[in-house]
Fold this sequence. Notes:
Elements: H1 9-15, H2 24-40, E1 47-51, H3 57-63, E2 68-73, E3 87-89, H4 98-103, E4 106-110, H5 119-129, E5 135-141, H6 149-153, H7 162-171, E6 175-182, H8 187-197, H9 210-226, E7 235-241, E8 263-264
Helix pairs in contact: 2-9
Amino acid sequence: MTAETKFSDQQLEETYPKGIGNHFWNHARNRIIASTLFAQGVSPQSRILEIGCGRGVVVRYLRARGIDCHGVELSKSEVDDDLKGAVRMGWDCFELPVEFRDSVTGLMLLDVIEHLPDPVNFMSRLQTSFRNARFLLVTVPARKELWSNYDDYYGHFRRYDTKLLADEFSRSGLEPRKVGYMFRALYPVMFLLARIAGSRPTRQSTPTQIWAHRLLAQLFVVEYGLVPAGLPGTSVIGLAIVPDRHDERAAGGDGPAVDAKHTIRQ
């Protein structure tokens, strides 16, 4: 990422206050991301890099589940001690040491490319710089009708639908395998906030009733697997592979490769 895309210190603090990983949205997204990676065949021999990782909420979650996940973030804020060996703050991903970049077998851009003026070029560059990366996992905010002050405040260029993300994958030289909505039950709430209230909070709140957030997260995970694919949600998750690097050990581990048939969830 280029320097102008990074969060200010204030924005980083507002988005990643201490304990935000316990929020239902983060916990549900973490679980969906983890299940997507395991389905891709990620194993302890795989090295995954999250680009634009903030303070490492996802990195911590995945490492606790046996995934060799690392993070890189342009902002220079501090991370917790348990992540200092796994998260590099103040780094451009393209300037990481070549040895490290060559060790990465999978990449993640989690709520990142909406901040980029040219995400297609960025995803193309990643394939050149990370020569052994075999797949890219992306999450983005969904549905342009949900645009609000939140998008303006955090410097979003766009909100996505499944077709747009799949198209950007293809134009960057990637092969989309699965693209679908998440957080469908949140859609009417966010629609009302955007269209009627006209605004939404820009500061994230650290949860106090963690048990309630875990229960709500579980409901969103179940929803993701059961609700019809065509129903819009507030986020899109997409998985794409680098075609000429895809084989039966797609993630660099011993797990199964992704089904060769495209699964684009509209």
